[in-house]
Amino acid sequence: MKYMLIHAVDESRLDDLPPQVETELEAWAEEMVGRGIELDGARLHPTSEATTVRAVGGEVQVTDGPFAETKEQIAGYDVIDCPDLDTAIAVASAHPTLHVGAIEVRAFDEGMSDPEVPRLPADGRRRYLMLVCADMRRAMAEDAAAGAVQAASPDLWDPPDPEQPDGPDEPDEPDDITRWIADAGPRRVYGWPLQLPNRAVTVRRVDGSVVTTDGPFAETKEQVGGFDLLECRDLDDAIAVAAGHPVADGGVLELRPLWS
User: For position 246, which CATH number holds?
Assistant: First the structure.
């Protein structure tokens, strides 16, 4: 099972990082790569370099700053492969981000293949993390209600059969995401949707002890629903890619450059 570790920190506390944090980070990465757990990851430039993109009614709106004004902001990410959630939480619990922030552990939807990310971007290209964000409160409420019904009456729970078609066969046509991926071409390295935020677990360190809570690191109207790693000529090129994403109309895309 693949999980995203969303590193969230109060940027004003970055000066509080202990001097040994770089050594701890190198040791964590070396261990996780060696164990075949770490598949991809990077540190992001600060929120002062964030750009949000919306496409309301076909009109592209670009603003500076992150998608949500919260005390803690996303500062980096890791994509890991673990046998279960408990193992993913243990991996997050050992990361030095917990000195000054939290790590949200979110499972990816099923079907994601191992990302293939060259060590360096192509000449003249820069990498951006594109966070795909939307208001998922209704979907989370429906998911929670379905979970309550399943827990209360497991013998009566009858989930949809994925092998049963919903209706008569229709000719296969590319959906909006498939068309967007084709339009993005080599500018999109990879990406995948995440499970709903109410299924997240957030890891913190409180008084020296690791504490976990259910749910995302911040309660905001819009939540991260997935991401794509882009490799573009410049920010304008990345904005053009983001503006064509289906979620841009109704949601918001946050672009953040990666540290080299």
Answer: 3.30.70.1060
